[in-house]
């Protein structure tokens, strides 16, 4: 029980401001939408869900791949065979430096 002068947890919960709902942001156009790597991304994400992994996992993987494919597109990399170890090292360097 709350001591005299203290506010109990239920009272604190009632005093909290209700969250206002915000409308979803409009989707921005994808500058790498036509990159052929998108087909591989789609297949991988479909496999992720089909194998029983959560939709949250698929969403996280999609976000990571979106960034990678955009980076590739900026460098005119559109074929899987163009992605070599040095390319991946450059991408890692881009992420962490």
Describe the fold and architecture.
The chain has helices spanning 9-15, 37-50, 55-74, 85-96. The longest helix is centred in the middle third of the chain and has 20 residues, at 55-74. It contains four helices and no strands. Helix content is 55%, strand content 0%. The model has no long low-confidence stretch (mean pLDDT 87). With 97 residues, it is mainly α.
CA radius of gyration:
22 Å
Q: What's the tally of helices?
A: 4
How far is it from the N-terminal to the C-terminal residue, by CA? 52 Å
Mean pLDDT: 87
The overall strand count is 0
Which structural class best describes the helix and strand composition?
A: mainly alpha
**Low-confidence sequence ranges:** none
Strand content: under 5%
- Percent of residues in helices comes to 40-55%
Largest sheet at a glance? none
Shape: elongated
Sequence of secondary-structure elements:
HHHH
What descriptors fit this protein?
mainly alpha; 55% helix; 97 residues
Quick structural summary:
The chain has 97 residues and is an all-alpha fold. Helices cover 55% and strands 0% of the residues.
Write the layout of secondary structure elements.
Elements: H1 9-15, H2 37-50, H3 55-74, H4 85-96
Helix pairs in contact: 2-3
């Amino acid at each position: 029980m709350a001591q005299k002068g203290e506010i109990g947890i239920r009272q604190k919960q009632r005093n909290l401001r209700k969250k206002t709902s915000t409308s979803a942001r409009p989707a921005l156009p994808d500058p790498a939408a036509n990159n052929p790597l998108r087909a591989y991304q789609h297949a991988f994400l479909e496999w992720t869900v089909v194998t029983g992994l959560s939709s949250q996992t698929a969403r996280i993987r999609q976000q990571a791949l979106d960034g990678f494919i955009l980076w590739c597109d900026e460098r005119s990399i559109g074929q899987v065979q163009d992605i070599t170890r040095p390319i991946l090292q450059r991408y890692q360097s881009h992420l962490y430096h």
